[in-house]
Structures are given as structure tokens and as C-alpha cells.
Design goal:
Helix content of chain B: 25-40%
Order of helices and strands of chain B: EHEEEHEHEHEEEHEHEHEHEHEH
Number of helices of chain A: 10
CATH superfamily of the largest domain in chain A: Succinyl-CoA synthetase domains
Number of domains of chain A: 3
Helix content of chain A: 25-40%
Distance between the termini of chain A: 40 Å
CATH topology of the largest domain in chain A: Rossmann fold
Number of strands of chain A: 18
Strand content of chain B: 15-25%
CATH class of the largest domain in chain A: Alpha Beta
Largest interface: A-B, 68 and 70 residues
Oligomer: heterodimer
Shape of chain B: globular
Structural class of chain A: alpha+beta
Order of helices and strands of chain A: HEHEEHEEEEEEHEEEHEEHEHEHEHEH
Number of strands of chain B: 14
Largest sheet of chain B: 7 strands, mixed
């Protein structure tokens, strides 16, 4: 989960990094009141987004009085920063900058360990900095003590280890005219798989990187995988999209191959969804019901590969339960094989017959991509 | 994996562990014992359970592979136990292991020269010899038969699906390995390609890759260094994902939308060193088939 800048900075402050004096203003809150309380005349107003290059996209505005603040905040809330929804703005003291540096800790897939990246050419995109100007220090996750004398490196390492982050980036790390190091930005991603070690993560607001607030359906699907058996078969992935073909895919790999096949067949997905790892009937039912609840659907594609151990009958029971309730009138195409495939096929075809659904079923003799074409044909 | 692979299962008394034990035994794999803390003395599928890996190895020193079926929060301890016991091959099926725990285990494994397959890996199969994990499931004999094509996949379902496409074309598999979909992979495509290069049975390899991460780029290096010279065809899923913002996760944990790591960019780089690119996953078989029999 990516953190907003203000959340990241609060985390960094816990580890002794100095952060600029600032205040967060959410939508609907009184920005002028916040500004006056902050007690600093020259401030920078920063749009809070989860990804993207803010500076280059006019997401940062300098202000010196209440009028300018009001104008800047209104302007930022009306914006989409590179497709990103602006959840809040951060008003911060303007720093007297002497120099700007860059420091980050991320996982390196070559060493399969964290790596510290540092450059004196801070303030610009790291991708645009010449390779030889970037200092790369390989770290060992087993070593708690970091023998690196770069500013804030030790504090960052402690934060990285303790907070289960996947990535910490400070750009720029500023040295002020007064000689102090200040984290002027913070980009932090948390490792959601470590949630059970961090009770406090529950307090973060719901978020999506899709340039809007999460939809009700997205929030509802996320709940499916919560609770004690969270790792036993997942059915909690749902991203709402603009199209009209409802999607129920099984398997992470099959799901992305099928999305590509769907678009190749000139169809438009209403959602991206995937369940896998042999989830129980109840989880699949809950997921299917939400997927089918989206208005304006024109077709349904249920597709997965030849499963290794996901029980086709059990998972299709869940889908059939939802189909029987909703009784869609649009065409449904199914492609699936694996353990208990015959039973799964029988029960979903019987469900279709009983409820007068238009359904075509394919087993492993037909490839997944070909059945996308079948659905496209039915919709012509 | 050979006839002499003796497998231990950590977490064998759990539901998934017991199922895996059965699946492996039915395929003729030598599963010799299991480990579950505090359940020592029990039996699963007629095989003894021990409280610790240490105890198990004392009784069964021939163990040379372990498959790990424990909850994610218990994974680090289980993997480190196996590494401490110098078991040379570890398959981790566990999904959603915190990345910090996994990095810790991978560092420990590297020092002891232990090979990890996974995490989030359903395992591997050498048709006719055995399987570690549940690749193929109960339909294993309908999908796998000994043959000439190596299969590597980021996805468990697609390991099976690709293997089925191979079988359907009248061919067989030399081995199929599900490397898992996480950001940190114990054994990478390039690691496996080097092994397939040495394997006489393998005439060609097919790969199911995904957008995100940099592992596909390691293949290029292996080919340039001539560490892999056999025909190779790859399908990279996730072209649709470029509609999503950078940093977003679509698909497996390692499938993160990132500049320079999209499916199309990977395909371009790979095709420049002669790797055959499949437009659809089902075309992979035809591509390598043509190569093998054109020679």
C-alpha cells in the first residue's frame, strides 16, 4: 500500500528525521483556518497523490497569504495529477534550501536484498540522473546496524526494517541554509502481507491509485479476504473499469493473459477480478455477486486455465449461487478445467437451464483466448 | 529432481500439507516424512511426523528436498529450519509471506548454497519421475508425459495450462517449474534456463512471464553469455496493465506497473536476442515445435 506524503512523513518523524512544519487539509476542511494556525507566512501547498510526478504537473504551489492559499487549495482539489485523485493537500513551511539530495531504500531483484540509492543530484527524477552519479549500497536484511555515514541513512534503515516497508524514498532530502537536513518529500510503500504485525495500519484511509476514491464494490470485495483464513484461497481482487463485460477469472497469470485476450477481441472489461488458491464457495459467491451487481453489463466471461488443485465444483457452486439470484439476461461464456471439472460443468449448466440463462461452456479442448472470441461473436 | 529425491513436508498435518503428501505419493515421489511442531509421533499417509526438521533428519538423513506448507506468519521459521538442516532444495508454496521475511531466508539460503523454488510456488514436476508440490493436481496424467519441452511459469495455473497445450500438440515436458509470482523469486527464469541447457532431455523451453519486475531481462544476459542456447519462446502477459498508474499492482504480487518493465518492453528486448515471442499463450507450443523439427 502506498502512503500519501503526509503519512510517510509522520512515519519518518518517528525515527528522528526532521520534517517541515506543516498541516494537512482534507476536502471540505477550512484551509485558511489551517494556514493561520500554522503560523508560517511563506508556505508550499502540495497535492497529496499516490503516484506520479507532482512537481512537473503543477501539483505544488507557493503561497504567502490567505488569499493565495484559498486559490491554490481550490485549484488543486479540482485537479487530477496524472490521473491521480487529490485526497488532501499539505501546507508546509517553505524551506531555505542550500542543496538537494536523493536517498531511497528499495528491494533489488538481482541481489534479492534491499539496496540504498543515494545521489547528490537530488530534486529530479532518479531515472534522469546519470548512472555514475548514483551511489548504490547493497544491504543485508539480517544486519540491523548500518555502517553508512550518509545523512539519515541509519534512521531510514531502522524505519525500513521496523515498519515493513517495501520502499522508502526521500526526494529531495534538503540541507537548509541553516545547515539542517530535512525530508522535504516522502514516498513510502508498505508491505501489506505484513499487516498482522501492524495493528495501526487499520487506521489508514481506504485508497486506490485509480484517480478516484475506491468504489463501494471495490471496498466490499476487499473485505472478502479479511479475517483469520486470509491466506487460504483469495477472492478479494476487484478493480472497477469502464467497459461492459463482467469478468470472473481464476488464477493470477491466467487473469492477465485473459485481459489481454479480451481487449484483443475488441471487448471492454467492466472490471478486473481474479480468485485463486482454491477459495471456498462462500468467498466466490460473495465475489460473483458483487461483480454481477455493476449496472450496464452486456456479457460475462468466466475463465481460467486447467487448475492444479482449485476445486472447480466448489468454486462454481459459488458462482452458480450468485447467477441463480441475479439471473443475468446477457450471454455468459465459461472456460475452465481441473479437479472436479465434470461436476462443476454439470452444476453450472443446470443452473443456467433452471434460470433460463444464455451460457456456453468450454473445457480444456478449447483455449481461453478462443472463448473470448466466442463471447465477442455472441455480442455482435 | 531424480528417482533419488527424498522429500520432507513441513506442515504435513495441515489440510494443504496432507493433500500435497497424497498428491506427491500418488505420482511416485518418495515422500519420507513430515514435520509439524508439537505433532511429533502422528502419521500422515503412513509417514511419520516429527516435531522439528532436526529430528526428522536424524531419522531420515537421506532427505534432500523439502516442501513447505505452513501459514505465512510461520514461514520464516520453517524455511530457516530447513536451511539450517542443509536441505539442498526447498519448495515454498506459502503465499503472502512478508517480503522482509523472504529476503532474510533468501540471504541465508544463498550462504549455504540452498536452492529455493518459490515462494508462492505450487512446485515442480519431472514427468514420469516425480513431483514436489501439487503441479498437475489430480489430472496430472492427463496433462503431463515425459518429453522434450521445459516449462517455466510465473503462474501456477498457467504452468498447468501451458503443459496441457504441449500435451495437446502431441508433445511432452522434460520438466515444468512454477517459479511463483512474488517480487523476490528464489529461483529465476535465468537460473532454470542454465539448468535446462545442461539437461539432455530438454530440446526447447517455453516461459509464461508477466509485466513488472526485471527477471525477464536476466534471460537476455544468459543468452548473450551463451549460457542458454536452445530454442526459447516466451509469452508475457499484462499488456492491458499500461492503462493503470505506475506503482499499482495488477495480478501477482510481483506484477507491478513500472516504467521500462511493461509486457511490450520486455518482448522487444527479448526478441532482439532471438527469443520467440508468442502473441497468445497457446502459440508458444507451435513456435518451439517449428524450431525443433526444422532442424
Amino acid at each position: 500500500m502506498n502512503l500519501y506524503e503526509f503519512e510517510g512523513k509522520q512515519l519518518l518523524a518517528k525515527y528522528g528525521l526532521r520534517i517541515p512544519k506543516g498541516v494537512v487539509v482534507r476536502r471540505g476542511e477550512d484551509a485558511i483556518f489551517a494556514y493561520e494556525n500554522l503560523g508560517v507566512a511563506d508556505v508550499v501547498v502540495k497535492a497529496q497523490v499516490l503516484s506520479g510526478k507532482r512537481g512537473k504537473n503543477n501539483g505544488i504551489i507557493f503561497c504567502s497569504n490567505s488569499e493565495e492559499i484559498k486559490k491554490a487549495v481550490d485549484e488543486l482539489f479540482q485537479k487530477n495529477i496524472r490521473g491521480q485523485y487529490v485526497a488532501a493537500v499539505l501546507l508546509e513551511e517553505k524551506l531555505a534550501i542550500e542543496e538537494e539530495r536523493y536517498i531511497s531504500i528499495v528491494y533489488d531483484t538481482t541481489t534479492k536484498q534491499p539496496i540504498l540509492l543515494y545521489t547528490e543530484a537530488g530534486g529530479m527524477d532518479i531515472e534522469d540522473v546519470a548512472h555514475e552519479k548514483i551511489k548504490k549500497i547493497a544491504l543485508d536484511i539480517r544486519q540491523e546496524n548500518l555502517l553508512v555515514s550518509l545523512p539519515y541513512a541509519r534512521e531510514l534503515w531502522k524505519c525500513f526494517l521496523t515498519e515493513d516497508t517495501r520502499q522508502i524514498e526521500i526526494n529531495p532530502l534538503v540541507r537548509t541554509v541553516g545547515g539542517e537536513w530535512v525530508a522535504a518529500d516522502a514516498k513510502i510503500a508498505l508491505d501489506e502481507d505484513a499487516f498482522y504485525r501492524h495493528e495501526d495500519w487499520k487506521n489508514f484511509d481506504a485508497r486506490t491509485m485509480l484517480g478516484r476514491l475506491p468504489t463501494e464494490r471495490e471496498l466490499a470485495v476487499k473485505k472478502i479476504d479479511e479475517g483469520e483464513g486470509y491466506y487460504r484461497g483469495t477472492a478479494g481482487k476487484y478493480i472497477e473499469m469502464d467497459g461492459d463485460i463482467a469478468i470472473l477469472f481464476s488464477g493470477g497469470g491466467a487473469s492477465i493473459a485473459n485481459m489481454d485476450a479480451l481487449i484483443k477481441a475488441s471487448l471492454k472489461p467492466a472490471n478486473y477480478t481474479e480468485y485463486s488458491g482454491n477459495p471456498p464457495r462462500e468467498k466466490v459467491y460473495a465475489l460473483a455477486k458483487i461483480v454481477l451487481s455493476k449496472p450496464g453489463l452486456r456479457g460475462l466471461w468466466i475463465a481460467g486455465g486447467v487448475a492444479n488443485f482449485t476445486n472447480i465444483a466448489e468454486t462454481f457452486h459459488g458462482i452458480a449461487d450468485a447467477l441463480a439470484e441475479i439471473k443475468p439476461t446477457y450471454p455468459i461464456v465459461v472456460r475452465r478445467a481441473g479437479p472436479f471439472e465434470d461436476e462443476g460443468r454439470r452444476l453450472i449448466e443446470e443452473c443456467a437451464a433452471r434460470n433460463g440463462l444464455t451460457m456456453q461452456f468450454f473445457g480444456k479442448e478449447t483455449s481461453m483466448s478462443d472463448t473470448a472470441q466466442v463471447l465477442a461473436g455472441l455480442l455482435k | 529432481m531424480t528417482e533419488n529425491t527424498n522429500v520432507l513436508i513441513q506442515g504435513m498435518t495441515g489440510k494443504e500439507g496432507a493433500k500435497a503428501a497424497k498428491a506427491m505419493l500418488e505420482y511416485g515421489t518418495k515422500v519420507v516424512c513430515g514435520v509439524t511442531p508439537n505433532k511429533g509421533g502422528q502419521e500422515v499417509e503412513g509417514k511419520p511426523i516429527f516435531n522439528s526438521v532436526k529430528e526428522a533428519l536424524k531419522k531420515f538423513p537421506a532427505v534432500n528436498a523439502t516442501a513447505i506448507y505452513v501459514p505465512p506468519f510461520a514461514a520464516k521459521a520453517a524455511i530457516l529450519e530447513a536451511i539450517d538442516g542443509d536441505i539442498p532444495l526447498i519448495n515454498i508454496i506459502v503465499e503472502r509471506i512478508p517480503i522482509k521475511d523472504m529476503a532474510y531466508c533468501l540471504a541465508a539460503a544463498k550462504e549455504k548454497n540452498v536452492r529455493i523454488i518459490g515462494p508462492s510456488s505450487l512446485g515442480l514436476i519431472v514427468p514420469g519421475i516425480g513431483r514436489i508440490g501439487v503441479v498437475g493436481g489430480p489430472l496430472v496424467n492427463e496433462i503431463f508425459q515425459p518429453g522434450e519441452i521445459g516449462v517455466i511459469s510465473r503462474s501456477g495455473g498457467m504452468t498447468n495450462e501451458l503443459s496441457w497445450q504441449i500435451r495437446r500438440a502431441g508433445l511432452g515436458q522434460s520438466a515444468a517449474v512454477h517459479v511463483g509470482g512474488d517480487l523476490l523469486m528464489g529461483t529465476t527464469y535465468a537460473d532454470l534456463l542454465r539448468l535446462f541447457e545442461k539437461d539432455e532431455a530438454t530440446k526447447a523451453v517455453v516461459i509464461f512471464g508477466e509485466h513488472g519486475g526485471s527477471y525477464e531481462f536476466e534471460i537476455i544476459e544468459a543468452i548473450i553469455k551463451k549460457e542458454f542456447t536452445k530454442p526459447l519462446a516466451i509469452y508475457i502477459g499484462g499488456k492491458f496493465a499500461n492503462v493503470f498508474p505506475e506503482g499499482m499492482n495488477v495480478g501477482h504480487a510481483g506484477a507491478i506497473v513500472a516504467k521500462g518493465q511493461g509486457a511490450a518492453e520486455k518482448e522487444k528486448a527479448l526478441s532482439e536476442v532471438g527469443v520467440m515471442i508468442a502473441e497468445r499463450y497457446e502459440d508458444l507450443v507451435q513456435l518451439v515445435h517449428n524450431q525443433i523439427y526444422a532442424h
